[in-house]
Amino acid sequence: MALIIQKFGGTSVGTLEKMRNVARCAIQAHENGDQVVMIVSAMSGETNRLLKLAHEIAEVPDSRELDALAATGEQVSAALVAMTLQKMGARAQSFLGHQIRVHTDGAFTKARIRTIDGTRLKETVQEGKIAVVAGFQGVDSRGNITTLGRGGSDTTAVAIAAAIEADVCEIYTDVDGVYTTDPNMCPTARKIARIAYEEMLELASLGAKVLQIRSVEVAMKYGVAIHVRSSFSDRPGTMVVGEEDLESVTVTGVAYDKSEARVQLIGVPDKPGTVAGVFKLLSDNHVSVDMIIQSASSGSGETTEVTFTVNETDLARVKGLIEAHMDSLGGGTSVEYDSDIAKVSIVGLGMRSHAGVASKMFSILADEGINISAISTSEIKVSCLISAKYTELAVRSLHDGFGLDKLAQTNPPPNKQGRKIRQSS
Amino acid sequence: MALIIQKFGGTSVGTLEKMRNVARCAIQAHENGDQVVMIVSAMSGETNRLLKLAHEIAEVPDSRELDALAATGEQVSAALVAMTLQKMGARAQSFLGHQIRVHTDGAFTKARIRTIDGTRLKETVQEGKIAVVAGFQGVDSRGNITTLGRGGSDTTAVAIAAAIEADVCEIYTDVDGVYTTDPNMCPTARKIARIAYEEMLELASLGAKVLQIRSVEVAMKYGVAIHVRSSFSDRPGTMVVGEEDLESVTVTGVAYDKSEARVQLIGVPDKPGTVAGVFKLLSDNHVSVDMIIQSASSGSGETTEVTFTVNETDLARVKGLIEAHMDSLGGGTSVEYDSDIAKVSIVGLGMRSHAGVASKMFSILADEGINISAISTSEIKVSCLISAKYTELAVRSLHDGFGLDKLAQTNPPPNKQGRKIRQSS
Question: Which of A35, A51, B270, B421 could form a disulfide with A125 if both were Cys (CB 3.0 to 4.6 A apart)?
């Protein structure tokens, strides 16, 4: 017998018919002898419907009221799923954030969970009931309703798994796991059987479609095993686990991101504070900067070149800010913008102990004739900025060049691993 | 400066445009120097939409889950109205049942309020904000969401008025007050300026369209002055107040009810327990019986006749129960049913001290040739059962016969009285 969390997103509970499917899934686990806590999101479209009403009232509605409004979506789902379970013969009870004391900070619309009181959920499952929790919501210290941001139900699921010491946190989605890269981009992409929290965080651009990043951080902190799997099939998906539970491979996945734009400042006076002034300007205006590269000073030693990337959607705003700031950079500075770029990254825990991974990446790209216009690295990631038109070529050649098309053979088959976790308690 | 409650029903907050109207109403009072707490119902149609989903899942959905589901309707309204107030320049904050500790018993779907903690609402209005409370909902001792039954927001409003000692509880509806009788039935019907709680309770069949009966009981218990008024006009409506604040009139209003059906048992053996057996049968099957009349025994002293009324919607069920029970009534008993009947009632506090009111009622009906088939009385009410086709004739002749068409002149003009209450603090 195991204690399992099953989290279902908005698509999985989008209609009453689909609710019967998720109920069947929970009842099956329950009949296998497991204790089940379900976390549900709002029915698909519901959150948008509510937010649309709010935005018809005001361009920037009060965030406290926005949370009180949006939280109703999950409340409706939880009650309806509980009714569905009952109709199908199971005993079930729904719970809201404030009923199981999902206490958060007071940052409306993007709150962070501080504590959860698992007592009532534990009692409920010990009585043989299936507990159905409204995801995405909590309460602050004054009892105000808060929400955890888009995808927040993932974080509710993982935090509850930690609070009640569940054996596994199953996240049901419309894909069947995390892939070595985007299968739409690369036909040899393979489902990853097991991946480390750190890798999952670095693969954000792939993983964001599957898991809220914050949920992975919480899972890492409390050692919660996440099982990302499909709501349409019984097959095991991807286990997101601690490093110690993995045989590390050098490169686990290849990610890409076409949403960035490059800004290049040329002929910037090489004086202390000049470059800092530019980034203070952007930060004061809430523009997030991703990569930053400053070249060595030019021959004369008087000017330098600064390249950085921002999100494409911020580019128009950045242009305005930079133009207005040009005077303070001196007359000789010019600026170039390019939104036709892509960032391609390789991620893997094994990089820490394997030399030459970055240079192998550069060689693979060079062999394909792809020019690299900027590079950034972390302990377990190397990212290269390239021209957008080479994205597919770069992803495919890196994927197969690092042997990811053959990865599945080197790891044990995923179904065995998925089972192991659930039967270990 | 006064502390006022303003309650708006589902029709008044049915669209974002209508929400601007109710916000304007609250802001106006606020600008006049009053402190305002608004109570709002779910947007019209929303509760039915939610219940329909529940009933698609199960014929009889779990009542705890039903309440968690239905309570979202008011939560949405409260948040949207608070946003609307803010957009219009006011400071505002929404509150849910659990946030202001609307503690109820555990009778899901028809809970009764036990206590309310008014502290947070008082703080909010003292800070110069308009508080917007989700009506209809509370929490039981375990923190489960409960609801107060259809029209429950009226009771929320009155109970909050009692908890924070508001000067008046304004109930905004689509009619402009309580009338001496149904204006659609009787063209000389007049708006009642002031009416006693007890009268309002007896006029249930008129008042139910305007006020939840339970809200009048709570108002009577705590001495809360209710002001029933129109959301479409500034004119004062009807004040529902304590008897001591009224000059009592003999007859305040004429009510009618066509929803009952009559059951007549003829030739029932006149033995102890026979009649009791019939009513135990009905009560065991949750059939509410209204009037009961047992005639004197017939000449032979061996049989008697019993007439009673039930709600028309229960009639088919009652027929089945009685037929199955006929054997135990002995072979000589026969039964007749009639759903083509109406109950006409006159209500007034003054009846207690005025003799001859009932006999005047019977004379008025007799003068119109209307036969009375049953009579029941309370201290402040006389009801007669008549043939349904005479309803309009009976209502009109009683209304004018008791001088209700001239009532408005004998009471002070309502606008003075409405003001008095609000300015008395």
Answer: A35
